[in-house]
Amino acid sequence: MNDSYGSDGNGNGCSNADGRAAVGHSPQVLRLVWGGMEVEGLAPDKDFALYPGGGHPWDWNVHGTRHSPGVQPGDVQELLDRGAEVVVLSLGMDRVLRIDPATLELLAAAGTEVHLADTRAAVGLYNELARSRRVGGLFHSTC
Q1: 76: exposed, middle or buried (C-beta count within 10 Å: 0-12, 13-18, 19+)?
Q2: Any bridge partners for residue 101, and if so which?
Q3: Mind listing the pLDDT tens digit for each residue in 29-77?
């Protein structure tokens, strides 16, 4: 585990005493294959939520994400709460994952730049943005 991401050892980014995420760069996605991802400083897993200072496996059950109606506002709110100023949302490898309209409304209301793409393209864009911006992303490594 790489402590430069503010990891707590459980794959979760650390928070400051006031609950805000510890500031750091967004980790790079090192490898993407069907059904799996490797992310800088984190254990390999299937899906990820990444943000400035760290990331963790993305558990769809936390906010009720399903392929349809799609990514839920609570998943994206976490990225914003952890300091993301731009958000990349993966639609899955075959673009099966949808984005709930309420999620896009939340991002628009927050004035957040958002990018939607199949997972391969989303990872490439995220990695590029992570070099210079406070980017967050949600990545699904199958369908």
Answers
A1: buried
A2: none
A3: 999 999 999 999 999 999 999 999 999 999 999 999 999 999 999 999 9
Closest CA to 21 of 115, 125, 102, 136: 136
Residue 23 CA from chain centroid, whole number: 15
| Best CA proximity match to 29, nearest among 48, 13, 11 | 48
Among the listed residues 63, 125, 42, 43, the one whose alpha carbon sits nearest the alpha carbon of residue 90:
125
Q: What is the pTM of this model?
A: 0.84
Q: What is the DSSP letter of 27?
A: P
Instruction: Give dist(CA 117, CA 137) in Å, integer.
Output: 11
Q: Sort 30 into a burial class: Cβ within 10 Å, 0-12 / 13-18 / 19+.
A: middle
Opening angle at CA 141, ends 39 and 139, nearest 5:
65
Instruction: Say which amino acid occupies 123.
Output: V
Q: CB–CB of 107/76 below 8 Å? A: yes
105 Cβ contact list (under 8 Å, min separation 6)? 73
**How many angstroms separate the CA atoms of 71 and 98, rounded?**
6
